[in-house]
Amino acid sequence: MALMTGKQYIESLKALKPKVYIFGELIDDPTSHPILRPSINSVAMTYDLAHDPEYEDVMTATSHLTGEKINRFCHIHHSTEDLVKKIKMQRLLGQKTSSCFQRCVGMDAFNAIYSTTYEIDKKYGTEYHERFKKYLLMAQKNDWTVDGAMTDPKGDRGLSPSQQEDPDLFVHIEEIRQDGIVVSGAKAHQTGSINSHEHLIMPTQAMKEADKDYAVSFAVPTNAEGVFMIYGRQSCDTRKLEKDVDIDLGNNTFGGQEALVIFDHVFVPNERVFMCQEYEYSGMLVERFAGYHRQSYACKTGVGDVLIGAAALAADYNGAAKASHIKDKIIEMQHLNETMWACSLACSYEGTKTESGAYLINLLLANVCKQNVTRFPYEIARLAQDLAGGIMVTMPSEADLRGAETGKWVKKYLAGKVGMDVENRMRVLRLIENLCLGTAAVGYLTESMHGAGSPQAQRIMIARQGNLEAKKEMARKIAHIDTSKDNVTK
């Protein structure tokens, strides 16, 4: 089975029976929990669109391992065309769900580990790359959703992993056995982990020799012994628990989720281990994964498309759509959204082949892309709230709209432009609230800031990749500068 449907995906997740806690309680079935179900629906969309002939070109690919059609989320990029189709898929899914659809991290982990293991094997004669190809083949054949897990809790940021008072604050190797390894620790902020079949683990930063036990990459099933997850709270998430709720959710079908994933003395067999103390390559793996994932923030342009449309609709319902300043604000929102898209396209088209044959994006441009994403969605959201008006966060509830005593008053005083339906106005205002302040704001705003590394991480990479000395030399040549005349003590 190379291509599951959304229904088959949900059934496969139900069969796993992962260990998940929400609000301190162990839940029986994540697929039926009202808080989790919208995020599962978003992942299901990545499966269903792969069967739609209209979207087949971007949603599917041909496996370089088998020659069979597979979901693009399980694909290794082998051309700049692959890199571009990847982000076109991500923008499409952002438009379809207006939320995080949670498979990008696993896809980016696949690609980073694929090329890095090739280079580890070349130096050390290990067999990580062949192991990983076999694992990837299983992922493709089973059409797995995989949680690519990099971020550790980190503890005291002023200390290295091996200096922490509690060694479990970074995922680490506890024991190396003949048949595998035992690991402990946790991965934080794990997008879609509860909705995943597998966890694919990577180190969180470049390691030194003293930290070699933390230089580890491996894969385990979501229901492996010793693995469990604790759901991360989202703004307004308990609205999903209210009876007969619809309008107040803003988006009653799709959503995202994050969790703290804990590994408590977990055994990993050798065939699922892809790095074991090769600390010199931890930085390469982190850099490549981060580059791929910073490219992936093209998804925010798809969500931005929905928010821009919602803001324009709100202006229609408010009767203000023809005002010049309203039009100008919508133009600015579009300008910012397309600027992010242009950067994601640029880093894709400028991709190059690695030694493994897989293609890597242009790392400088990927970091420029993500640096813009840490800023522009916030301005788009600010303008959307400006256009929506304060009623977005102070209007009565859906229950009041339906209430026998209150309904007529809500309809009377929430009226906007003559002839426009009050309920429809409330729906679009709640959608804007959801994207700017509610559950979807986790993915559209906070994740834009901190996902794939917080802003300073990109600035460090821009400084490293920007080749400033070459630019200085260009200036010297144009200005006919004779450096022998400079008398500078270094």
From TrEMBL:
UniProt entry keywords in alphabetical sequence: FAD, Flavoprotein, Oxidoreductase
UniProt: FAD binding residues: 191
TM helices/strands, residue ranges: none
Keyword Oxidoreductase: yes
Presence of keyword Ribosomal protein: no
Residue stretches making up the HpaB/PvcC/4-BUDH N-terminal domain: 5-275
Organism of origin: Criibacterium bergeronii
Designated name of the protein: 4-hydroxybutyryl-CoA dehydratase
Domain HpaB/PvcC/4-BUDH C-terminal: 283-479
Gene Ontology MF, one: oxidoreductase activity, acting on the CH-CH group of donors
Gene3D superfamilies given in the database record: 4-hydroxybutyryl-coa dehydratase, domain 1, Butyryl-CoA Dehydrogenase, subunit A, domain 2, Butyryl-CoA Dehydrogenase, subunit A, domain 3
